[in-house]
Each structure stands twice: as C-alpha cells, then as structure tokens.
Amino acid sequence: NLEKEVEAALKAKADGSEYAPEQKEIDKKAQAANAASVAQGKGESAVDTGSPKKAPAKQAAPKKEGIDKAQLNAIAVAALADSVNPCAMLVLIILLSSIVVYNKGGKKKAVLITASFIVAVYVTYFFIGLGLTHFLAYANLGKPILYAVGGISIFVGLVNLKDAILPKAKCGFSLEIPQSWRTKLMEVIRKATSPVGAFASGILVTMFELPCTGGPYLFGTTLISSAATLAERVSLLLFYNAIFVLPLVILAFVIIAGALSVEKAEAMRDASAKYLHAIVGILMFGLGLWVLLS
Q: Is 285 within 8 Å of 151 (Cβ atoms)?
C-alpha cells in the first residue's frame, strides 16, 4: 500500500488538509531526536525529547582487571622457586670464595663487594623483567601466551625433577650452568676486586644465570604483565626480585660473619642441590598445571 499512501499524503499536502493526524506527533519526536543527536555531536547536552527511548551511552574501553590474590601468590611462588635455584647460589659462593682468597681488605671491603654484586644482580634482573612485562602488556597476546608459559613451566619443572633424581648423570637436557662456562665465570668473578668491578661482574653473571633461572622468571613476568598499570608492574617486579635475592643476602651474611666457611657452604650447596632441584621442579610443575587448568 506504499504507493497509495504516498498519493494520499501528497493530495493532503496540496489541499492543506491533515493526513494521518498522529503523524504530527511522530514527526515532532523525530525532529527532537535529530536535534538531540546534533547537540551530542557538538558536545552539547542532549535535549529531552520525551521519548521513552534514550540514545545509547558510549561504552568504556575494557580495562585490565589487574592482579588477583591467586596470581599474586603464584608470582611469590615463582620468585621462591627462582631464589632457591642452585645456579644462583653457586655463583654467589664462587664470588665469596674469590673475595676470601684474592682480596685482603677485611670484612668491610667484603661487605661492599658482595653488596655491590647482589645489587647488580637485582637491578639487571629488574630491568630485564621490566622490558619483558612492558612488551607482554602492550602486545596483548592474551591466553595463548599464558598457555605457552604454562607449558614452559611444566617443562622446567620436569627437567628440574630429572636433575633431582639423576643429579650426576649426563642424562639429556639440564638447567644447570654448563661446566664449560664455569671456568669463564670464575675468571669474570675473580676480577671483582672492587665494588665497581663486582657490580660489572654481577651484570655479566646475571646473563650467565639466565639459562637456568629464565623459566621461573618468564612465568613470573608473564603474570606481572597482566597488572593494570605500569606502577603496579614495577611494584610487583620489585617484590619478585626482593624474594629472588633474599637467599643470596642471607648466604652472604652468614659467610662474611664467619658463621659458615666458604668450603662448608659449597659442600652444603652440592649436598642439597638435588633437593633444591626437587623443590624448584615441584613448584614449577604445579604452577604450570595451575595456569593450564585455570
């Protein structure tokens, strides 16, 4: 009936009569709605049209939910697994033995050199983590990266469990610092005869450690990257790295204070290496399962 209605409307317009009186109310509301739309486009307040329908509100951009308690606990567990890694302890014991044998500046100098070394490890680790979290936060890779990191975590856990069961056997891949690297590591650390040299050595040694500490740190930084703001990511990284260096600080303190000799510390480290690997393995395997199942 469209053609018929159009003709009736044109005839009513030509005669000056009303065509469909209710149309006036419809036209009035349509004009008011158009005016309100224009006003909103110019940043003006919308006019109340009296219509029951309202213009749809602008949807806010989705915000990151941030870190929940479960994720915070997972970050702390990853940091703990990272901190008890036998590699990190081995490196510090090598440094302390070097200080005892080659430096004759007393406890004060030993404290300065050791503190400088640990600060360098902390700072280097922090900036590596800051770069990783910044990239992951803005790449917005979502669940695929979490699943990938969960798989890596399970792999790291299984390798550490293998190292715990077969600590001396050359059985496949291992997350220990390769024996061929340790001589070079000793050469680097022996040059740490001053706080400045120890700081530089700490940066280089952190790079040496990454092959065996990278798994837990990648897991931790991936979770940290889901924090809502840069300030939160920085705070979480500071928290993670504080847990990471804490065992090194304790070990350095007891050796420098004379409560434990370097030789005994190294013997204890060797004797407990398989247990430390077992702890790291269980923690990382559990974290990987948690990510994949949740």
A: no
Q: Encode pLDDT of 62-108 as tens digits.
A: 455 567 788 888 888 888 888 877 666 777 677 677 766 665 567 78
Pick from 97, 114, 84, 83: nearest CA to 267: 97
Location of structure tokens 């440094």: 95
Residues 6+ apart with CB under 8 A from 5: none
The model carries a pTM of 0.66
Provide φ and ψ at 281, rounded to 5°: -60, -45
> Is residue 201 within 8 Å of 188, Cβ to Cβ?
yes
d(CA 291, CA 147): 7
Tell me, rounded to whole angstroms, the distance of Cα 276 from its chain centroid. Answer: 23
Nearest to 213 by CA among 75, 87, 72, 73: 87
| Structure confidence at residue 239 (pLDDT) | 93
In our burial notation (b when 16+ CB lie closer than 10 A, e otherwise), range 178-209 reads eeeeeeebeebbbebbebebbbbbbebbbebb
What backbone phi and psi angles, to 5 degrees, belong to 53?
A: -90, 135
* 3-class secondary structure, 29: helix
Please state the rounded mean pLDDT for residues 229-256: 87
Asked if 160 and 281 count as a contact pair (C-beta separation under 8 A), the reply is yes
| Res 176 pLDDT > 70 | no
